[in-house]
Amino acid sequence: MAFSSFFFTLLFLLFLTVSDLFVHTRGLNFGINYGQKANNLPSYSRVASLIKSLNVTRIKLYDADPNVLSAFSNSNVEFIIGVDDLQSMKDPSKAQSWIQDNVQPYISQTKITCITVGNEVFTYNDTQLSANLLPAMQGVYNALGSLGLAQQVTVTTAHSFNILATSFPPSSGAFRQDLIQYIQPLLAFHAQTKSPFLINAYPFFSYKDNPDQISLSYVLFQPNPGSTDPYTNLHYDNMLYAQIDAVYAAIKALGHTDIEVRISETGWPSKGDPDEVGATPENAEIYNSNLLKRIEQKQGTPARPSVPIDIFVFALFNEDMKPGPVSERNYGLYYPNGTPVYNIGLQGYLPELVIESKSNVSRHTRNS
Ligand SMILES: *[C@@H]1O[C@H](CO)[C@@H](O)[C@H](O)[C@H]1NC(C)=O
Ligand SMILES: *[C@@H]1O[C@H](CO)[C@@H](O)[C@H](O)[C@H]1NC(C)=O
Ligand SMILES: *[C@@H]1O[C@H](CO)[C@@H](O)[C@H](O)[C@H]1NC(C)=O
């Protein structure tokens, strides 16, 4: 009797373990940008519950918010974190203290796998800032190395798609001439450290600027005639893949075929100013849900069919404090109260409100 109940307990535990594995492998392999330029976002522990309910296993932050990193301790979620202070990261001792303060205390419990140094740095046309980018990335990389973390954490930066001067046809992709002096050595760094080249790509911007010339179905991954690159004969049925391949071509033009391109941001706003054509909840829903289907199918782009697209959707929440046109505050999959802005088949929900102050969040979640 005792033995058989022991046996059944064992079987039950085994079952739990196996179903756990199943749940993890079922997780959709896409990431979400968790931006926090808002004054009304839910508590960190509620966000952690939401992310778990979505089965999302990768998050990108624009900083290294210790509240978030703590709220996700012992979770299955991988993090890309960010640092913007290029001037300090150039300095080896400052870079080392930054890693000691922002990475080392968390990395044993929270999977930090990548650090982005700067976001869209080249778009400012600030020669000092642009010149600091690679030395700052090297500073962070060397600091990780001296702390024994270089194998676990890669170092990169996220670029705007505007660093390309030419993007169509995709095989003609080329970087802006004035940026090549910075990008060429950056590519050597990526190849040497095996880190990905990240690009923020928004077919929405192209559509909004040329709604009469660009087909909405082409940018929304809907059935459409597509376009064929006359130099490669590769056929494109959506703009995002054409943009990714244009980046591959621009990198190749500088002599590299050894660097992977990933999408650090893409998305579609559910609302915009009157002149922001196409910013509607319907289009946002179609863009994001069709994108998720492509990710589920592990599709590669026409030029890299065997490399599944690697995507971070922008963004988790609408962020009410972002400057700029109305669209900037309306990229979220969720309103800050946890209601989905539209239904993309992710049955996310926010759990019951737990009354807690932000300063108590990390303790609360670490114990739970
Ligand atoms: C930076 O320079 C590029 C190319 O000359 C230009 O298209 C872009 O508008 C400039 N950006 C800013 C913020 O001045
Ligand atoms: C997450 O995975 C679980 C277990 O496989 C599944 O029941 C649930 O529907 C998934 N949730 C979403 C939002 O896909
Ligand atoms: C934080 O938690 C502690 C212990 O649970 C509690 O005594 C304290 O009042 C809380 N602080 C705030 C600001 O809620």
From TrEMBL:
InterPro entries (alphabetical): GH, Glyco_hydro_17, Glyco_hydro_17_plant
Recorded catalytic activity of this chain's protein: Hydrolysis of (1->3)-beta-D-glucosidic linkages in (1->3)-beta-D-glucans
Domain of life: Eukaryota
Signal peptide: 1-27
Keyword Thylakoid recorded: no
GO MF, one annotated term: glucan endo-1,3-beta-D-glucosidase activity
Annotated SUPFAM superfamilies: (Trans)glycosidases
Alphabetic keyword roster: Glycosidase, Hydrolase, Signal
The protein's Enzyme Commission number: 3.2.1.39
Pfam families listed in its UniProt record: Glyco_hydro_17
Keyword Signal belongs to the record: yes
Entries under PANTHER family matching the protein: GLUCAN ENDO-1,3-BETA-GLUCOSIDASE BG1-RELATED-RELATED
The family this protein is said to belong to: Belongs to the glycosyl hydrolase 17 family.
Protein name listed in UniProt: glucan endo-1,3-beta-D-glucosidase
